[in-house]
Write a structure and sequence with these properties.
By secondary structure, this protein is an alpha/beta fold. It is elongated, with a radius of gyration of 36 Å. Helix 4 packs parallel to helix 7, helix 5 packs antiparallel against helix 7 and helix 19 packs across helix 20.
Length: 637
């Protein structure tokens, strides 16, 4: 017949199982880096424990001297001074072990947070589409805080509790084994109780962290879309939504707190039982002359000190469980590899001198679907379908199409914001999947259709496109480039309306700017990059027609001058520009234009040829012309 393991052993085994501890493998490099600090801290901790264990012995000596009678001031002062010295050592030692151990834990937390943030920046765009920002913030704050506590106070509880428990048990059994054996009966129940509830603590802590992530996500989403919230007068909806997530977070934390609300009263109860048992058993031993009053007083002190190691065992398991849960959430992110990354051995496209035989950009039978299907049999799921297109250096290409026709996906495939199939997208004759990712993206400047701006000055938002303007003082050359970019995007005419001009701090996501102003700042940021390829993804949709023509004409002239300096005066073409727009007035400046419909190229040629073709391009041009004429007529009327 198999013997049953005690609930205490089962709980302890489960709490410290390999599955729980396996998450801590990622901390080994950090702990090894700070090994000397941890060793110094544990040495100080052991000195503190030794001093604490010795203090009751001096107390015992003083009381026995008093009870014996005939004592002098010297017999009392001597143990009193010794206790003061021990307490001084305890105070100094506690400061030092906290400095070394907690200080190291704080440094590890800081390094892990930096590593986590750096890893976030390496992950592909799809990762941030699948994960809420609030959850990622929770992992970067609350979860890392739980890990810090685990490798700080958790390790202290483990070492301190073990040393103190072994030392105190040895001393009390040496002093009086009979009384000690009776008095310790309730103490293991304290640790057993916490260990049995340890699994519940871990689960409830995870729910609390998830509830915090949901609440943070609600706050982040609400503040990011505050314009929409206020314009639709939906404050009440988001107040209620936040109240619900806030209540969920409170409920999750209350469920966790209730466990501790049960633990501490029970711990106090069992501690009181220990004192009662010791008082009865020890008092009888003193009356019988088998124990001195000083020994009984010292035993009381030792049993009070023994409460912490037994509680510490439970706290240690709980802290390790909480740390393991949080570290598992962090490791989940750290073990996520970007779907789009540079190859191990990037191919070099060769010299930057134009080669007439190699087009700058080429799409070969590109078929793409966001769900990963690339087969021709699932045409309904394909965002791009059999795209074949060659873009020569210096070409201005316009792209027109209905919403959802794949325009943005096409340019995302070019810069690998989405991963195209192998051998379908080429830049300078090299598959984009074989390019070094940073080099590929340096080659292209993109003004996305959402015109995202950071909560910084207008100047700094534009200067993000300048590598030499980051991390230090702005140079004269950088200032000149910024001024030219501001003039080119026509944002300079609005600077007089800003309190500090270019140094005006804009709100998060450019909250204080209009849609057209945000687009023009984004254009400035793109053109200042001075790349070989410029992509304007519906970047002029919020700009009036007059400003649009000014931007395009200046862009055409400026880019032509830049290209003459880069490629050579004998080749007077401007660098490659790809313009995505719903306005024919924008696309009419292009050398070539194409129309996308359901991911396929349905029209391609010069703007004049497409007008003559009488297809979607021509119909859109006619419709927009009628709209302009109607608008002009209404103004005249």
């Amino acid at each position: 017949m198999k013997s049953k393991r005690s609930p205490l052993l089962k709980a302890f085994s489960k709490a410290l199982s390999k599955g729980v501890l396996s998450n801590y493998k990622t901390l080994i490099p950090y702990l090894y880096r700070y090994r000397f600090q941890y060793i110094a801290g544990f040495v100080c901790l052991l000195i503190v424990d030794a001093a604490q264990v010795i203090i009751p012995l001096f107390l015992q000596q003083a009381i026995d001297s008093i009870v014996a009678g005939g004592f002098t001031a010297g017999t009392i002062i001597k143990p009193a001074v010794a206790m003061v010295v021990m307490m001084t050592i305890v105070s100094g030692g506690r400061f030092l072990w906290r400095y070394f151990i907690h200080g190291s834990a704080r440094r590890i937390e800081t390094e892990m947070r930096a590593a986590l943030f750096d890893h976030f920046l390496t992950l592909s765009y799809d990762f941030f589409q699948k994960n809420k920002i609030g959850d990622l913030l929770s992992r970067s704050t609350n979860d890392l805080d739980a890990v810090r506590v685990a490798i700080g106070m958790g390790l202290v509880a483990l070492v301190d509790g073990t040393v103190m428990a072994v030392s105190i048990l040895a001393i009390i059994f040496i002093n009086d084994a009979h009384s000690a054996a009776l008095a310790i009966i309730p103490l293991p129940l304290i640790t057993a109780l916490i260990l049995l509830f340890g699994n519940l603590v871990g689960k409830r802590f995870q729910k609390a962290q998830e509830a915090y992530s949901a609440m943070s996500g609600t706050v982040q989403e609400t503040f990011a879309g505050i314009r929409v919230v206020k314009s639709f007068v939906k404050e009440w909806h988001f107040m209620r939504k936040f109240a619900d997530t806030n209540d969920d977070y409170r409920a999750a934390n209350m469920a966790l707190v209730k466990l501790y609300g049960i633990f501490f009263p029970l711990i106090g109860f069992f501690s009181g039982l220990t004192s009662i048992i010791l008082l009865g058993a020890g008092g009888v031993r003193v009356i019988q002359g088998a124990m001195t009053p000083g020994q009984l007083t010292a035993l009381f002190r030792y049993f009070q000190m023994l409460i912490w190691p037994l509680m510490g065992a439970g706290f240690m398991v709980n802290l390790i469980q909480r740390g393991a849960v949080s570290l598992g959430r962090i490791n989940e992110v750290m073990h996520t590899h970007p779907l789009i990354a540079s190859p191990a051995h990037p191919k070099q496209p060769g010299a930057n001198v134009p080669n007439a035989n190699v087009p700058l950009i080429e799409f070969r039978n590109l078929t793409f679907a966001y769900d990963g299907h690339e087969e021709q049999s699932v045409k309904k799921q394909n965002i791009l379908e059999n795209i074949n297109l060659t873009i020569e250096r210096g070409t201005w290409l316009g792209i027109l199409g209905r919403t959802g026709s794949g325009k943005t996906s096409l340019v995302k495939a070019l810069v690998r914001m989405i991963e195209p199939p192998a051998n379908t997208v080429f830049v300078k004759g090299v598959d984009v999947r074989d390019w070094d990712l940073k080099e590929l993206r340096r080659l292209v400047a993109v003004t996305p259709q959402d015109s995202y701006l950071f909560s910084d000055s207008i100047r700094q938002n534009i200067a993000y496109g300048l590598e030499d303007a980051q991390g230090g003082a702005e140079t004269d050359a950088a200032t000149e480039k910024i001024e030219k970019a501001v003039s080119l995007s026509a944002i300079d005419k609005d600077l007089a309306n800003f309190a500090d001009g270019l140094d005006t701090i804009i709100g998060e996501r450019g909250l204080t700017l209009s849609g057209g102003q945000k687009q023009r700042v984004s254009i400035s940021r793109a053109v200042i990059k001075d790349s070989e390829v410029l992509i304007l993804d519906d970047a002029l949709s919020a700009v009036d027609a007059e400003t649009e023509q000014k931007i395009l004409s200046q862009l055409l002239e400026t880019r032509r001058k830049v290209d003459s300096a880069r490629i050579g005066a004998q080749n007077g073409r401007q660098p490659t520009v790809i313009i995505i727009s719903h306005r024919i007035s924008t696309l009419c400046n292009a050398d070539k234009a194409l129309v996308l419909d359901e991911g396929r190229i349905t029209e391609y040629g010069t703007p004049a040829e497409l007008i003559a073709h009488n297809g979607f391009y021509a119909k859109t041009a006619a419709l927009q012309q009628l709209e302009r004429q109607d608008g002009m007529k209404q103004r005249l009327d």
